[in-house]
Amino acid sequence: MNEFKPTPPSSQLIIDEHGNVFFWVADGKKRFLGTLRGRDFHCQRDPARHVHRKTNSYGFNHELIKGCPFERLIIHLPDGTRIWITRQEILKCGIFLQFKAQGFERQLFVKLKYFRPYDESLASQVYPDSPSGVVSKTVHETA
Question: Could you point out which of 48, 80, 81, 99 has its C-alpha 20 to 30 Å from the C-alpha of 120?
């Protein structure tokens, strides 16, 4: 009996009704990337596992950076601290590294020196082009 696998949407990114962002990977499964809250994208990283040692950088899915509607990317670290960077800074400072042999998608890597400590006052910042600070997003059904 053939096992049913859902067909990925035309975009490899899926944003559900809760703001959770997933990426369809080659084997037909989806991988959780993080959560979209207003204009901020939140994700978790463990430096022991996720820092690319040769470049001292974090990698981010290229589809996420170019296709997800956010202005700031906020990383939650295991010790409870947070660091952040803007999407524009990622596009400006990021370098492409691709690890096809290990099954990773195209990624932009950003050196740790470009991230700043997150300050709670940033949470209430309203973006000038969006009075409520909320951005509309396309919601895809997740199977």
Answer: 48
In the chain, the number of structural domains is: 1
In a domain, 14, yes or no: no
**What would the two tokens of residue 15 be?**
């944003």
Print the domain residue range for 41.
36-123
Integer Rg of the chain from CA: 16
Q: Hey, what are 113's tokens? A: 């020196």
Cβ-proximal residues to 111 (8 Å cutoff; 6+ apart), any chain? 55, 56, 57, 93
Is 60 exceeded by the pLDDT of residue 1? no
Torsion of CA 59, 61, 65, 67, to 10 degrees: 180
The pLDDT tens digits of the residues spanning 57-90 come to 999 999 899 988 899 999 999 999 999 999 999 9
